[in-house]
Write the structure tokens for this entry.
Amino acid sequence: MKILNLYAGIGGNRKGFGVGHTITAVELDEKIASVYAFNFPDDNLVIGDAHEYLLRHFKEFDFIWSSPPCQSHSSFRQNICVRFRGTKPEYPDMRLYQEILFLRYNFDGIWAVENVKPYYEPLIKPDAVLERHLFWTNMEIPPKEFEKDNIRTAQIPQLEAKYEINTAGWKIQNRRQVLRNCVEPKIAEHILIQAEHNFAANK
């Protein structure tokens, strides 16, 4: 498949994609993108705005994965302003819902939009829930149990071991948050397997 990996980060979900596909990844932060490029040198890496890239290039792909920024939606955010002084309240980032609606009504291929469980009732009901992740998609994602971990308390060494990605060589701000933003590779693999089945069935 030709896969578009939006908001690619350092590539947590990408580790679940394996080999055999042509992958284009889009990441805005150059330093974060450099970690992705080091770990996945065969991917086509675009440093730019994923939201804008989707709008202009969606027709070029068979499967689109999007993980829009989740911090403004997170169920943990209600506690952040209380626990950590100086954290300002902010509007929810509505790119999440824009992309769900855009893909649902404009894209003929296979797609999945991922985000965290929000502090509010989702404005669009998710199609699947896997661990702490919500998925909006046009394919069936069967339930599956994954190994439990406490992502909220894990520190950088534990997170790097979990994702098998070393970030020490790059001057990334808030390395722990960047690592926490990664999607569990086994969850990404589970999603990709469903996408492969759908792709094969529709050929």
Remarks:
- Residues 75 and 117 are 6 Å apart (CA to CA).
- The radius of gyration is 16 Å.
